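Handoff note, outgoing to incoming analyst
You'll be picking up this chain. Sequence as last confirmed:
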Amino acid sequence: MTVPWREMGSDEFRKELRGFLADHPPGRGPRGKLERLAWQKWWRSLLFDAGVAGPSWPVEYGGMDLPFTLQVIYHEEMNRARAPEPPGTGVGLAGPTIFRHGSPEQRERWLRPMLRGDQVWAQAFSEPEAGSDLASLRTTARIADGGDVYIVNGQKVWSSYADLADLAFTLVRTGTPESRARGITYLVIDLHAPGVTVRPLRDITGGEVFCEIFFDDVRVPVANRIGAENDGWSVARTTLGHERAANAMNQSAFYRRILDDIVVLARERGLLSKPGVVDALANLHARASVMRIIAMRTISDIIATGDPGPASSVSRLIVSTFEQDLHEFALDMLGPDGLLSREDPDAVQGGRWIYGFLRTRASTIGAGTAEIHRNLAAERVLGLPKDPVSQE
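Most recent structure output, in case you need it:
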């Protein structure tokens, strides 16, 4: 390859990337948690070392700096190859936040290891009594050692893959309990530091994706603060916006492939002749197309302004309801056969549909509830009166 990726035309880029993936197939991911993490990290290092990681990231941090049209193709081809996503939530969430609000030293220290998969990141925002109302969080951080260190105490919950992560991007209270959003600071905390305890939480799928984190007098260098003290809410808004937009194009391509799998399943079971099934599939295909268009708009907004904008809330709402409806339809189509779990040897396609159904029950809660996204769309797209809580 003589032409840099970002300077290729669309057809050439797709051909070259497809050739690279054919020469370096990711293979099938293992089921075990630690084995899967090792597979993801291997894949990230392979991409990074070959200059094929981070389609939207600057070249100086190991990215490809692709224009919008090539980013779309990148996500389509990665999904076509069934390539694994980056381990943890750093690349999609913490990375864009550090680009925008981090210091040059912080970018240099964290971004390249994050993109290569050498460091795995987790998000630690929600608390037992501060989920949707994040501004009421209680985890505290007080200055010590002459202003060089924060002492952090508190608890976080619903942190995905925190038991596998090295670092957590965390919201803490540095103001008074009454300060709400005006007294929050954004810290990066070493999850291997003394005083940190991470406990996996088993969910209804039987898996342990989510974790709770306890901080007991954890010492965090002030150099790990992103942005100014008590200005963490504005920093967090960047993270939350990218959380709702992260991999929007990837999700669109992913669910288009899942929908194709459902069509094959319906054909195998002789159901494509049923009008109700055909109508439902047509509806799902139309919604998948809308997902793709919204995802393209979101990426376009990020490229133009650095901010996903209100499209990210619309995108997240569409994706979360779509993936729930998609798996509900699959189970309805399978009938009693769809209820067999992944452990049952007679389960259809390894029990993937019942697993997906159970997993997506949380889709309209995680990354902001569906109600929050409807409020944001109402306020920022339709111009309706704002929720008083969101103004605090």
